[in-house]
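Attaching the record inline, Q. Sequence:
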Amino acid sequence: MGTISILKRCPNIIDAYARIEKRLLEVGRSEREARLKAWIELEKFKAIETDRLTYFARLNLYLQAMVPADDPTNLIFEIVENVPVERIDAEGLGQIAASLVDKYPRVAEDYLIALEDEYPDSRHYSYALYTRAQLLMQEGDFEEARWHLAQFRAESPMHPLTIDVTLDYAETLTKTGDYEQARTVLEDLLRLRQAKGRPHAKALLALSQNEAAAGNLKRAVPYAQRVYNVYRAYHDLAAEGYLMSALQLEALNETVMAYKTLDEMLANPLMAKLALANEAKEKRLALLESLPEGALDETAAEIAKLTEEVSE
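Structure, as predicted:
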């Protein structure tokens, strides 16, 4: 049975949600979501039992959309394990490919190729442009990736991945030496209300990297500093900002400020637990040992302490 005929007999999960919503209006939101999830789990079991695998995939994708982006789940891999590629519709192929491309590029490419080959005219083809661009960036082909991302931006300006695509597009501009255009794209992103929070912090880091790549280190530092001053709640991004600004300050021969920047970062217990902290510790020690005598009131004991931390 072909994919098209399978899709015709698979109910739309949004329609299913609308039908059961009528029965749940008298309960609170959390209870409503709990009941919906329980119903979906039951439907998933029935879908597997009756070989309605396209429906199973849609149910899992719907569940995935209910989970915060940073919360890990195995929902996508349940589809990979249970549903043949040819039984997945265009939207499903695109969502799976986009979800897996960062950590599992080889698996993602199977779904990408199916989308490119079977659904070249689909309105969900934008997922193919995004995923292909990610693979090209991983290979270092930023020129070709830039073209795919530009196509995405032109064809799907309201897509859920638009903000991620904008950040990636700016990166390809920086990597290909179009620093002015990258700056414009990122500054435009900072003006978007829907991009507040993590996207804004990422845009500031990208602006810092762009200015540094363009040779404007003095302009680069404030962008990175703004991340850890304004978006401190995002510990991973704030830590990136600290390390980025410290390296830039070191390049500007502001060694004491670079050292103090890293010292401040590592004094934060949450940031000190990040993998990035190891690099920061090593750089802080190197900076300390390079300082002229008297630049800081550090003792030989402090140097020994830092050396011990790096070796741990």
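Residues 1-10 have pLDDT under 50 and may be disordered. The CA atoms of residues 24 and 203 lie 41 Å apart.

More tomorrow.
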